[in-house]
Amino acid sequence: MTYCSPRVNNADEYTAVEVGFPSSHEPLLAPYQDGEGAMTQSVFGYVPASVIGLVLIKHGGMVDGELPAGIPAYTLPETH
User: Which residues of 14-30 are buried (b: 16+ CB within 10 A; e: fewer)?
Assistant: First the structure.
C-alpha cells in the first residue's frame, strides 16, 4: 500500500487508505483525487476511514469485496 496510513503492509488497523477507479463520480472523494480528469479513471490517496464509511452508506452499503483492517464495512441487509 502506498497512499495509506500507516504506510505499511498488513497493518492491524488503517486510518486512511487508497481508493481506485470508482464506478461513478463521487463528490466525497474529490478532495483526495490524485491529479485531474475523470474520477472513474483516478486514484484517491489517504482517504480517511470515516469518508469511506460515508461513501458506503450513501450508496447503500457494501455488496461484495473486502476492506483493509480498520475500515468500517457497512453491508446491505438481506432481503427475503
Answer: bebbbbeebeeebeebe
Residue 62 pairs in a beta bridge with 75
pTM: 0.86
Q: Who contacts 24 (Cβ-Cβ below 8 Å, separation ≥6)?
A: 39, 40
pLDDT digits (tens, 9 = 90+) for 42-53: 999 999 999 999
CA pseudo-torsion sign 55, 43, 69, 77: positive
Q: Where do the domains of the chain lie?
A: 1-80
What residue ranges in 1-80 does DSSP mark as E strands?
Answer: 16-20, 43-48
C-alpha cell at 9: 503492509
Rounded to 5 degrees, φ, ψ at 54 are: -65, -40
